[in-house]
Amino acid sequence: MLKKCLFGLAMLASFSSTAALTTIQTETYAGTAGNVSDGSVIQPFIFEKFDSALGTLTDVIFSYTFSINNDNDTETGYITVDNKTNAEQTGEATLGASLTFSSTDIDGFAQYTLFYADGTPKSLSDVFDFTVAADPTLSTGGNGPDRVTFFGTPDSKTFTPNTSGILNEFIGNSSDTLTFNFVTTSVGAVSVGGAEVSTTAVDMALAMNIQYEYTPFAEPTDTPIPAPGAFALCLLAVSVFAGRSYVQKQAANK
């Protein structure tokens, strides 16, 4: 009887582990600046919300990376300026891309937190100051000093906003999702007079990650826990057994 009672008491502290767990989802896109996730040709980024049945969500690590010309470091986008005047010209050229995200699955404050609160422009570009020589023939083409080409250079930015105040926006059930639409814009601008300008958009890439950290709900082990009445009987049995042992020892010593 005593052994059974002690075993029952030990089961009160027997539960399965509740160590923190992590799940990670990733979506990517690569293409030419100027493309939009229209849902037909280019799909938006779609993530599963955290399933509230799994446990308690403790943190969301949300990040996205925006890159241009990072495909094996090849130079893809370019701007060409061809002077068509009989006078030297100076100017400035800008080449790159910009990015915006939006979602109808989270509220306005959450969107601001994820994409705008840091105040950092979601754009990557190079600025070139240049001078092109006079072209007495007033012609186009060729490779003379009256013509110059600027290639885009590789660049990348990663953004990791603070999500501590918007965790509820990521919680749902096993069938709920979060959709993020993106719009990319080609940046190709030249400030110069009397020149012919041609532009080719840069290549760009996007990657978005959502990492859920959570504590799973504790579950009892397969061994049943004694009912309160049984627990009280066990304590009584332990007390009686201890008393009997004491009396028997005293009688043996006389």
Features:
2 domains, alpha+beta, 254 residues, four-stranded antiparallel beta sheet, single chain
pLDDT < 50 stretches: 1-16
- Derived from helix and strand composition plus strand pairing, the structural class reads alpha+beta
**H-E order:** HEEEEEEHEEEEEEEH
What's the helical proportion of residues? 10-25%
Total beta strands: 13
What does the model show?
This protein is an alpha+beta fold. The chain has helices at residues 2-10, 108-115, 228-253, and strands at residues 21-32, 45-48, 50-51, 55-68, 78-83, 89-102, 123-132, 147-151, 155-159, 171-172, 177-191, 195-200, 203-216. The chain folds into two domains: 1-16 and 223-254; 19-218, no CATH class. The protein has three helices and 13 strands. The chain has a four-stranded antiparallel beta sheet with strand order 1-13-4-9, with no helix packed on it. Helix 1 (2-10) packs across helix 3 (228-253). The protein starts with a helix and ends with a helix. Residues 1-16 have low confidence and may be disordered.
Provide the fold topology.
Layout: H1 2-10, E1 21-32, E2 45-48, E3 50-51, E4 55-68, E5 78-83, E6 89-102, H2 108-115, E7 123-132, E8 147-151, E9 155-159, E10 171-172, E11 177-191, E12 195-200, E13 203-216, H3 228-253
Parallel strand pairs: 3-10
Antiparallel strand pairs: 1-13, 2-11, 4-9, 4-13, 5-8, 5-12, 6-7, 6-11
Helix pairs in contact: 1-3
Write a concise synopsis of the structure shown.
The protein is built from three helices and 13 strands; from the N terminus they run H-E-E-E-E-E-E-H-E-E-E-E-E-E-E-H. With 254 residues, the chain is α+β, with helices and mostly antiparallel strands.
